[in-house]
Amino acid sequence: MPDSSIHSWGLLPTVSHTHVIPLRDRRQTLPSIEGSMLPHGLGRSYGDSCLNEDGALLLTRGLDHWIDFDPETGLLQCEAGISLAEILELASPKGWFLPVTPGTRFVTVGGAIANDVHGKNHHRTGSFGRWVRDFELLRSDGSRRNCSRTENATWFRASIGGLGLTGLITRATLQLRPIVSPLIDVEQIRARNLSEFFALADESDSTHEYTVSWVDCLATGDAVGSGIFIRGNHSETPSDLTWKPRPTLPIPIHAPGWLLNKASVQAFNFLYGHKFSGDYHASQEHFLPFFYPLDSVNDWNRLYGKRGFYQHQCVVPREGRSGPIHDILSRIGNSGQASFLAVLKVFGDQPAEGLLSFPRPGVTLALDFPNRGQRTLDLMNELDEIVMSNGGSLYPAKDARMSGAHFKTFTPALDLFTPYIDPAFSSSFWRRVQENS
Ligand SMILES: Cc1cc2nc3c(=O)[nH]c(=O)nc-3n(C[C@H](O)[C@H](O)[C@H](O)COP(=O)(O)OP(=O)(O)OC[C@H]3O[C@@H](n4cnc5c(N)ncnc54)[C@H](O)[C@@H]3O)c2cc1C
Fold first, then answer.
1. Which fold has domain 183-404?
2. Which of 282, 333, 419, 423 has the most CB atoms in a 10 Å sphere around its CB?
């Protein structure tokens, strides 16, 4: 019986799967079924890269065993369905932290590898794959490979950022980084425009491990790029490392679609911009609210209503003081189709491990758009053209609609990658970008 209970974080597209198969034992071979299959972790990808319409999903959360943890070296080996939240609960009280974390901790190790996720410290540490020592890849023919930089090295590079298409990652070894306190020394600084944002990013590059900016997408003219620049470092003053996960607020039903409109975005921007007075605020925060402010509200994606929402995340070359990011933000500001969340960050120049990894040197902008049908798609298509003509790229983990032609241009290593796809694996994203090119 077709199953349409599983969706991605953006709540679109709605698809049904022929089978939804929970995996429990990494030693077993993959189920033999007709049609294609795809691993699915915690479904925190926004579009269709974690979906497989009319095919099967292999639910990986049941692969949740710890295999080894060395509190002397911070080397952790676990099954791929373990979440980053669970790693933090195990390792941070022992003085170890994730080397790279995305803006939610509710993602699995397998999902973090398959999208080669990045965090606020990309300018220092690069993306997740750089901290993966090795992993096991299980293929539909029953073969197993240990993959690392020295063993099956091209399989390693194909599977990091490989969108779940090269086989099932059953377990992985990660290098964690040491901490002496759960606190982060945080500074919030008002940036009045894009030039100020870039100046702050440059100034913080060598002094702060974490940098990111929340941007007001309604700003136009001289104020384009204005927002709050946030930077932080792990506190170096030793303190009690124990902590308890905090309760999260539920969003029990889908909100009406009109809830997130221009007025509510303005109100949000006003409140956020006025959370601190003046231009500068320094504080100490626990790592949970610093890294995961959105995790405190369960299922916040339902605020966008049943029609769901798109995310658009690009990376473009920096080019002086403004360049393509200025064009993109101006286009959004003038469109009146405000993005509720807009996050701007300068990526560093550490090369990513994966053949298809998204992060590359430049500046990345992530935007959420409530789904208002064709006019939302038209706006994002315009943004794509700016990205394309400036030699940038879009993040597949956040995508539900980029064209196949764009994907091919954004992915120079595509031909190198393709031979590593498991013949029994596919995804809605993959078929879409193959078909409409
Ligand atoms: C609030 C929020 C903030 C976010 N912030 C960031 C951010 O700052 N940086 C960033 O990079 N991303 C960010 N993301 C995106 C998220 O980190 C990625 O989409 C991540 O890959 C999701 O992991 P998951 O476990 O939910 O995997 P899913 O979304 O279920 O799957 C993701 C991909 O991984 C594959 N996969 C899953 N498990 C395995 C496995 N065991 N073996 C092989 N392939 C597998 C799937 O087939 C799919 O292609 C954010 C998402 C949300 C909702």
1. Alpha-Beta Plaits (3.30.70)
2. 333
